[in-house]
Fold:
Amino acid sequence: MTAALPGFAGRTYLFEVDNGAAFRNSYSADGTRLRWEGLGESAGQYEDVPLHTAAIAPGIWFISWTERSGITVSHVMDLNSLTVKVFWTWEGETGRVGELHTGTLTPA
Structure:
């Protein structure tokens, strides 16, 4: 039996975060990879990353990845309401730092 593709597979979204950050997130056709591109102040930054995914409920997905820089990102994407809860962590001067944010998705 073949698992169903994630609802975000093969799609691109503009992801706008409550702190003003914005990204263009393009997901591979099979839903296993993400290419994120920074917009605005983050313009010019991008990376292709493998994803860890799990279905939570119809249209709701948990997605996580680790970037080359050591930043970890975890999303709960609600494709029904086009909203995201995101938690990212990075190594700060005094240890690991984490932030929780909300954001919106706009199909691109």
Residues 60 and 78 are 4 Å apart (CA to CA). The chain has a mean pLDDT of 96.
